[in-house]
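Please fill in the sequence for the structure shown.

STRUCTURE ENCODING:
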C-alpha cells in the first residue's frame, strides 16, 4: 500500500531510467550471475549495465535497436540475454528472487494451492484430447 512512509522507499526518481537497478536490487541480482569463463581475455563489460539494458528493453518494450546509447551496445546486451537464457541464468535469478519475495512475505517458498477459473477450464476443453494426441504424435 502506498503510504507517505513507503513512497520514498520505492521512488526511482534518482535513477537514470526507471528500469535501472538500485544498489539494493543489484546486491540481490549481481551474485547470481556466473563469473566469466576461464582463459581468454578478461570480461570488460559492466554486467550491471547489461542487466540495466535488459530491464530497459523489458520495461519499455522497445526494439533492440532503440536501446539508448548510454547503455552497452545492443549486440552485447542481446548476446548476454541469449547466453543467460540458454544456460539457465535468467531462470535461476527469477527463482531465487521469487523465493526471497515469498519468504519476505512470510509465505512458503512454493505455493501450495492453485486457482483455476472458468476461463482456464474452457480453454483446456477447447483443445481437448485431440490436440494432446497430435502433439505427442509429432514428438515421436
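FILLED IN BY: designer on duty
SEQUENCE:
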Amino acid at each position: 500500500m502506498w503510504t507517505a512512509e513507503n513512497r520514498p522507499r520505492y521512488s526511482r526518481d534518482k535513477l537514470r531510467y526507471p528500469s535501472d537497478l538500485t544498489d539494493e536490487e543489484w546486491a540481490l541480482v549481481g551474485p547470481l550471475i556466473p563469473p566469466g569463463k576461464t582463459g581468454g581475455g578478461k570480461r570488460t563489460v559492466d554486467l550491471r549495465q547489461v542487466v540495466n539494458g535488459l530491464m530497459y528493453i523489458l520495461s519499455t518494450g522497445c526494439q533492440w535497436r532503440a536501446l539508448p546509447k548510454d547503455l552497452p551496445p545492443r549486440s552485447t546486451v542481446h548476446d548476454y540475454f541469449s547466453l543467460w537464457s540458454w544456460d539457465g541464468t535468467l531462470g535461476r535469478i527469477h527463482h531465487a528472487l521469487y523465493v526471497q519475495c515469498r519468504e519476505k512475505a512470510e509465505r512458503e517458498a512454493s505455493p501450495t494451492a492453485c486457482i483455476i477459473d472458468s476461463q482456464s477450464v474452457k480453454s483446456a476443453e477447447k483443445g481437448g484430447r485431440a490436440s494432446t494426441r497430435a502433439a505427442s504424435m509429432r514428438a515421436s
